[in-house]
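My current task is to audit a protein record that another person submitted. What it holds is a sequence and that sequence's fold in token form. Thanks in advance; the entry in question is below.
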Amino acid sequence: MLKIGEIRELIRLLDETSLSELKLETDDMKLLLKKADAAPVSVPAAPVPVATAPVPQPVVVQTPAAAPTPAPSAPAADAASAADVVEENVHIITSPMVGTFYRAPSPDAAPFVERGAKVEPKTVVCIVEAMKLMNEIEAEVTGEVVDILAENGQLVEYGQPLFKIKLS
């Protein structure tokens, strides 16, 4: 069975080549990665029954373009509990993909925003790096940054809360 790091490496290699599809089969799993637009998409692996062994559980492989995994994890649990507590006049900016969260455009530059900063819909608040692509995340609302929920350089999950914006 492949580890998540090995799957990420396969995705990175696929992205860096002119190949449009990668298919990998072993005795207990199948993995198919295809490029769709700029981001690869994975297909959940189907179990392959083995006559002398019990039927293996299906292996679900996620990439940045796929939906979040159904298995509970700390970031997913945080996102769910943040969604349950709805604060009045507060907008939560969430990560649109899995990647690395950066508060500034470069290591020696000032952060895009700080607590108390006023933002407009097109204001860039951070970057999420996914597969060596720097994706600028915009506020999408007018308001004031009241909380920064992720640490610089932290790996973030799809749907993970990044900022709280008090709407104005």
